[in-house]
């Protein structure tokens, strides 16, 4: 609709369409607040035009947009999140309208370097794999960009070695875990 009112506005709305001078009011606008969680470094696009970078000054956190349908895009400037693009209708109303769109986190990647020695790797609650090969670590919606993961590396005939590793969504990381010496056996060391 040209005047920014939704289709099917009833007669009461039409009665308010003009002021005393007979002019139509400007198209309705509303403050739209952006929250591209969990990725804070995001370019915001509206209807194919870049609005700006999300954030405190000099970034943007909200903008006045006309009510009605828009095409929005969040384009992360870091590798932590996938970009998102969607259509959303800004309804008329008082107060700000929260554009509540969460970005999906990219998986991280962890390689456990054991110097070529074979071992199994268990990233507790996330993934399993082999040493010396990149293992994709999924990030869940509730995780946030960074999390600490427990990595258990098991060499044949030895007790598991446990390590806590901080991994960021979209990051590739390698940790070094020394293989036990031949003198070490399962159960030794206390």
Helix/strand layout:
Blueprint lengths: L10 H5 L13 E6 L7 E5 L2 E5 L8 E5 L1 E9 L7 E7 L6 E3 L8 E6 L6 E4 L3 E4 L4 E3 L8 E9 L6 E8 L3 E5 L14
Parallel strand pairs: 1-7, 8-14
Antiparallel strand pairs: 1-4, 2-3, 2-5, 5-6, 8-11, 9-10, 9-12, 12-13
Could you describe the 3D structure shown?
The chain is mainly β and 190 residues long. It is 3% helix and 42% strand. It is built from 1 helix and 14 strands, in the order αββββββββββββββ. A 4-stranded antiparallel sheet has the order 3-2-5-6, with no helix packed on it. The chain has a 4-stranded antiparallel sheet with strand order 10-9-12-13, with no helix packed on it. The protein has a 3-stranded mixed sheet with strand order 4-1-7, with no helix packed on it. Strand 5 and strand 6 form a beta hairpin. The longest helix has 5 residues.
Tags for this model:
rod-shaped, disordered N terminus, mainly beta, 1 helix, four-stranded antiparallel β-sheet, 190 residues
Shape estimate: rod-shaped
> What portion of residues belong to β-strands?
35-45%
Indicate the structural class. Answer: mainly beta
Count of DSSP-assigned helices: 1
Give average pLDDT, whole number: 85
Series of secondary-structure elements, N-terminal to C-terminal: HEEEEEEEEEEEEEE
State the total count of DSSP E strands: 14
Terminal-residue CA separation: 76 Å
């Amino acid at each position: 609709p040209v005047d920014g009112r939704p289709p099917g506005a009833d007669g009461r709305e039409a009665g308010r369409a003009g002021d005393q001078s007979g002019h139509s009011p400007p198209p309705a606008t509303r403050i739209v607040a952006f929250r591209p969680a969990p990725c804070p470094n995001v370019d915001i696009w509206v209807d194919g035009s870049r609005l700006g970078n999300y954030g405190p000054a000099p970034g943007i956190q909200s903008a006045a947009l006309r009510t009605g349908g828009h095409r929005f895009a969040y384009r992360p400037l870091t590798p932590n999140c996938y970009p998102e693009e969607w259509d959303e209708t800004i309804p008329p109303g008082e107060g700000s309208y929260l554009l509540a769109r969460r970005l999906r986190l990219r998986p991280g990647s962890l390689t456990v370097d054991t110097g070529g020695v074979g071992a199994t790797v268990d990233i507790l609650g996330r993934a399993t794999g082999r040493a010396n090969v990149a293992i994709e670590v999924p990030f869940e919606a509730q995780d946030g960009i960074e999390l600490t993961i427990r990595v258990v590396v098991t060499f044949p005939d030895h007790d598991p070695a446990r390590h806590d590793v901080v991994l960021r969504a979209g990051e590739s990381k390698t940790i070094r875990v020394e293989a036990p010496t031949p003198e070490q056996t399962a159960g030794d060391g206390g």
